[in-house]
Request: fold
Amino acid sequence: MATNTFSEAAASPKEFPVANQSATGTGRIRTNSRPRVVVTATQALVAVVVLLAWEFIPQIGSLSQWKLLDPYFISSPSRVGATLMNLLLGREGVPAVWGYLWPTFLASIIGLVIAMIVGGLMGLLLGSFEFAGAVFRPFVVALNAVPRIALIPIVVVLFGSGLQSSVVIAFMVVFFVALFNAYEGARTVEAHVRHNVRLLGASGWDLMWRVRFPYALAWTLSSLPVAVSFAIVSVVTGEILTGVSGMGLLITAATNAADTSMTFAVIIVLSVCALLMLWIADAFKRRVLHWWIQSE
Reply:
């Protein structure tokens, strides 16, 4: 009887607090009530204003003499758009982007998923057991302070200059994002909740999996936007430094040719790729944390 009562108490979504979100009285997320169409229209307006300013402000008087507004250094939306089309279609001597995008996208996804799982579980363990957290937290903080870019040559030597090295580079960066979020999430369980489930006969492992795990999961998934960005940036950085085929190699070629239009076109492709990954991650988060998110 005590076990059933404990399971019901631990599984109740109303007991969970909210991390990094505005909370309702029940402790669940309350989404923004502003109509989505208004938000989308405002975003489109901001984008149009930025593009128009980028296109026409450098044409005013002698403003183009400033390096910050010189089209040679910043190109223009029309030039970038033309280069982007050539990049997507592989025409006019411009290589098609798809052969370069796939290795970057694949390495980012694999590194992200593995790092979120391993880092989340490690953070859950360290946050659930006070002694282990006290012992290993300084070492984790010290490892996180190591600049991962300095480890890229070692990674290449160990794993070769290919997909495996790109995955490892993404893992090294995203792992700590997931770990620290899961660690803090596991530690946010209120004392009265822990005491109540202890009184109901829960063991340390029961407390970790039935009570702390949902907190850690919510906090870990809330870090997905940052984790996705870090995964892509780390993979591209590794490609730039190692010459591995990918979007980083395109950026290097564009830089060597002083082709700013190509550089911006590659950046746009990477941004769209990141937005797609964020959309998938957000859909996954809504699916997994449906008990956490409350619509008005």
